[in-house]
Amino acid sequence: MKKHNFNPGPSILPQYTIDGTAAAIKDFMGTGLSILEVSHRGKEFDAVMNDAVALVKEVLGVPEGYAVLFVGGGASTQFFHVPYNLLEKKAAYLKTGEWATKAAKEAELFGEVVIVASSEDKNFSYVPKGYVIPTDVDYFHITTNNTIYGTEIMTDLDSPVTLVADMSSDIFSRPVDVAKYGLIYAGAQKNLGPAGVTLVIVREDLLGKMTRKMPKMVDYRTHIKSNSMFNTPPVVNVYACMLTLQWLKNNGGLVAMDKVNAAKSELLYAEIDRNKCFVGTAAKEDRSRMNVCFVMAEGYKELEAEFISFASSKGLVGIKGHRSVGGFRASLYNALPLESVQALVDAMREFEASH
Length: 355
Ligand code: PMP
What we know:
- It is an enzyme of class 2 (transferase).
- The protein is an alpha/beta fold.
- The chain folds into two domains: 15-250, Type I PLP-dependent aspartate aminotransferase-like (Major domain) (Aspartate Aminotransferase, domain 2, 3-Layer(aba) Sandwich); 253-353, Aspartate Aminotransferase, domain 1 (Alpha-Beta Complex), CATH 3.90.1150.10.
- Helix content is 35%, strand content 17%.
- It has helices at residues 15-26, 43-60, 74-86, 98-107, 220-225, 235-250, 253-274, 304-313, 338-353, and strands at residues 4-5, 66-71, 90-95, 112-118, 140-143, 145-146, 151-152, 163-166, 183-187, 198-203, 278-280, 291-296, 316-317, 328-331.
- The chain has a seven-stranded mixed beta sheet with strand order 2-10-9-8-5-3-4, sandwiched between helices. Strands 11-12-14 form a three-stranded antiparallel beta sheet, covered by helices on one side.
- Helix 1 crosses helix 6 (235-250) and helix 3 packs parallel to helix 4.
- 4'-deoxy-4'-aminopyridoxal-5'-phosphate (PMP) binds next to helix 3.
- Residues 9, 74-76, 99, 143, 147, 166, 168-169, 187 line the site of 4'-deoxy-4'-aminopyridoxal-5'-phosphate.
């Protein structure tokens, strides 16, 4: 049976990426070697890295003056790379979930951290509004999509100070005005590629201003100078990311993704709002298009495990909610087709009819 993959990350990738990576594992660009065993210093991989960087710039519309990097360590490593490079005295953070909280906590090792606003009072089920971004800080950090709680900041904020964004779980899901951000980072394992590589887009004029000493691996300038090959990069992961970027480009880019992602999430939210058995957990105006969180409605609470196993019998995998929210989370990343969302909606209807 065909599986419908709603995993939150690592998560569904385009078949194009999976097939292309499998082919390169057998024979990398006609070298007669597997991509698992080639040197990152060879001309073939050099071309892969250059293509991946060029495709990020093209697909996302990265303006002049920004560097695009592929680094190791996951998004969690960026939680301290960012303040290492940009926090001299004070930084501001918007506390919208577990990842935002972890990012702010790491920054405290480097200077003063101001939490401008938090939605912790309601289990991060909304995105705070009406806050004022201080002007005496080195940067303002946001998490554009809160993977665990299913909320999303869909607009590119106007910030009086350098705006830093963790876009791990919604990058490439819609067009973004990169010029509004000083730095964007994203772990690859949702909309881009396998876990283990992180995309960083940084405005170069922000760098080199810290008085502190930094390990070379932490200094973004090291990676800029060496085209993300100061040390051995995660070769296969970068290759897979390049394939996904090609897929994005060949499938209408971010304008097309935006449309499909709107259609997918509207379909599912409409069913959650209509179906008597289920209720959404995030504030309607802040609902994420990538991670749709919902629970059993009053009167149906004891049916949670039954719905999970019913869904599983229909080939729907990865819909169990994160322990902080409970219930269900359906992740609708770029590579998930509309038909998978329809299959989930059909299962919810069938479940309702039988209860
Ligand atoms: N930020 C967000 C928004 C995430 O969803 C995640 C992980 N899912 C992380 C950061 C941490 O990423 P990593 O596991 O790559 O360190």
